[in-house]
Design a protein that fits this description.
Number of strands: 19
Number of domains: 4
Strand content: 15-25%
CATH architecture of the largest domain: 2-Layer Sandwich
Oligomer: single chain
Largest sheet: 7 strands, mixed
CATH topology of the largest domain: Heat Shock Protein 90
CATH superfamily of the largest domain: Histidine kinase-like ATPase, C-terminal domain
Structural class: alpha/beta
Helix content: 40-55%
CATH class of the largest domain: Alpha Beta
Length: 610
């Protein structure tokens, strides 16, 4: 046959044997068996090389155990097997014994399944497994406790399992791989769980089922709720702070408006030298107090993230000259030279926030003048222009003043801090000016740097990248005839102001600007609406915060009465918050002037609208 084609009887004393011939099937079987043994041995050797620790020992034991039949077969083929002994069954017996010993010694094959089983059952997270028929396959102890499942649930679908949350169990059937959060309420305690779903697949890629892991995140949720509550409290506090700032701004600026306004008017009357000095001192003190109030309000706005920068085409040269003019009077009193140096390559116009840039430069120059006893203060601008109308403007303020020590440099940009306490007593100030300037510069994408040597002076500088435009300065020439025409023109002006002293100041100021005009007065929005209906004024000067009806509501009512023409309404407000100013514009006001009023700006604004 194919397996054993011949049989031969061999007799020898004391035994006789039958010799089998080897056919093609026998040879094929031998080749197949040896191939399997070689492949298996190679795989075990591969796992030995790739494995570590206890797994390596297990594979080594398996290799040694499986080698006994292999060795016995080699001995049989080479004719070296012991005479009279059938070595093949003995080798398999030894192999089985070795494997059993290895299994007992090294927990061969079953260590990791046991470890996985213990891990699954004892993990703190709740876990259960569904097969591809949506039947419960396994439940750990935590899931039994949390979901009120019992071991009897194994084999059942979640929606009919023995659980206290059948609706939730039913939803598990619809969940895809991923994660979500669920709230469980057992009537006494609310707990939150992070539910993670993992698809299980066989080696061939077919779906085997899903594993659900529920992690208790109640503590995290509690912390999040506390953080949310703290955020709400902080927002309420911020809102209260803003309201407080608005109120304090109004309450402080209202009397300051009268102080600065009346002293400005007094300065233009006939006074003897002593009276003129007294009035000037009062006016300077009023402006100093206004500067302190502005510093505190600006710092609070920047700290709260409420500072909004504008981008306006600005005459930079005019702005620089204004900065010099602001400090020039004080510098001349101290016999200091004030120098303005402008790079000839700098275009006259740039797109910047002129108010905030002037605020930074004025503060730096005021500090330079304040801390310089003799010598000079220089405001310098250098310019580097690129091809796309972008320019880097480097502003620097240099002085020959007292300088800054190494110790004092560490405090320079800290709020409410000056070089030392004697600085405040000697030079005054809140210690906020430089801090605010640096914060504004950062909002502009820059930072203020400085170099200083004690006793020799300081240089403060910063850079701005901005869009520049070529152009000539627009010169406003005020003709005498134009001013006379404005002053003599018969106009009706409605003044709406609830504070009597401010009404007096407005009356006096308008008398100097529009001496021939008719002034109509109202103390609140209700009276203003009535006066507007009766007199139809050419201009309305509207206070914002008033009793009965405020200026914003009164403006809306006036705009509702108008059919064709719109009377200019100028807001006069002691509030500096942007929200209030936006409400003024939305209500229909044409312009906003902040108290204390700047007489020159007030005059120019009236000229603009009349």
């Amino acid at each position: 046959g194919w397996m054993w084609p011949t049989f031969t009887r061999a007799t020898s004393d004391p035994e006789s044997r039958i010799l089998y011939g080897t056919g093609p099937a026998k040879i094929l079987t031998i080749v197949y068996s040896y191939s399997l043994i070689l492949i298996t041995t190679a795989l075990i050797v591969y796992r030995i090389i790739r494995s570590e620790g206890v797994l390596k020992k297990q594979y080594q034991a398996l290799l040694v155990s499986s080698s006994f039949p292999w060795i016995a077969n080699i001995l049989y083929i080479t004719g070296n097997s012991p005479a009279g002994i059938e070595i093949t069954p003995i080798s398999f017996t030894v192999m089985v014994a070795a494997i059993l010993w290895s299994m007992s010694r090294n927990n061969l094959f079953d260590l990791m399944p046991v470890a996985y089983d213990i891990l699954f059952r004892n993990m703190s997270d709740s876990a259960f497994v569904l097969d591809n028929q949506n039947r419960v396959v396994e439940i750990n102890e935590s899931a039994q406790r949390v979901l009120h499942l019992r071991r009897e649930s194994i084999g059942a679908e979640p929606n009919i399992a023995h659980s206290a949350y059948p609706d939730l169990m039913y939803r598990f059937l619809e969940m895809e791989e991923g994660r979500t959060e669920y709230e469980l309420n057992d009537g006494e305690l609310i707990r939150w769980y992070d539910v993670r779903v993992t698809n299980l697949t066989y080696r061939n890629g077919k779906n085997a089922g899903r594993m659900f892991v529920l992690r208790d995140i109640s503590i995290r949720k509690g912390l999040e709720a506390e953080l949310l509550k703290a955020k709400e409290v902080a927002e309420e506090a911020s809102k209260a702070k803003s309201e407080f700032l608005a109120t304090m701004s109004h309450e402080i600026r209202t009397p300051l408006n009268a102080i600065i306004g009346f002293t400005d008017l007094l300065k233009n009357t006939r006074l003897n030298p002593v009276q003129k000095e007294y009035v000037n001192n009062a006016n300077v003190s009023g402006h100093a107090l206004l500067g302190i109030v502005n510093d505190i309000l600006d710092f609070s706005k920047i700290e709260a993230g409420l500072l909004i920068l504008e981008q306006i085409k600005t005459d930079v040269v005019e702005l620089l000259e204004n900065c010099v003019d602001i400090v020039k009077y004080t510098a001349e009193k101290k016999l200091l030279n004030v120098i303005l140096t402008i790079d000839p390559a700098m275009p006259r116009f740039a797109v910047i926030d002129p108010i905030r840039l002037q605020q930074i430069l004025t503060n730096l120059m005021s500090n330079a003048v304040k801390f310089t006893k003799q010598g000079e203060v220089e405001l310098k601008v250098d310019c580097e222009i690129s091809d796309n109308q972008q320019a880097k403007l480097k502003f620097s303020v240099r002085d020959t003043g007292i300088g800054i020590s190494d110790e004092q440099k560490l405090k320079l940009f800290k709020a409410f801090s000056q070089a030392d306490s004697s600085t405040t007593r000697k030079f005054g100030g809140t210690g906020l000016g430089l801090v605010i300037s640096d914060l504004i510069a950062k909002e502009m994408g820059s930072k203020i740097h400085f170099q200083s040597q004690l006793g020799k002076g300081s240089v403060f500088f910063f850079e701005l990248v901005t869009t520049v435009e070529e152009g000539q300065q627009v010169v406003y020439e005020e003709s005498a005839s134009g001013t006379t025409e404005l002053s003599l023109k018969q106009l009706k002006v409605l003044i709406v102001e609830d504070v009597e002293i401010n009404m007096m100041m407005m009356r006096a100021l308008l008398t100097t600007i529009l001496p021939a005009s008719e002034l109509i007065e109202a103390e609140n929005g209700v009276q203003a609406l009535k006066a507007f209906t009766e007199h139809r004024p050419d201009l309305v000067l509207m206070d914002v915060q008033m009793p009965e009806m405020d200026g914003i509501e009164a403006t809306r009512a006036i705009r509702a009465l108008e059919v064709v023409s719109r009377v200019p309404i100028i807001a006069l407000t002691a509030g500096v918050l942007r929200e209030e100013q936006e409400k003024c514009i939305e209500a229909g006001m044409n312009e906003i002037l902040t108290k204390p009023l700047n007489p020159e700006k007030f005059r120019n604004t009236i000229r603009q609208y009349l």
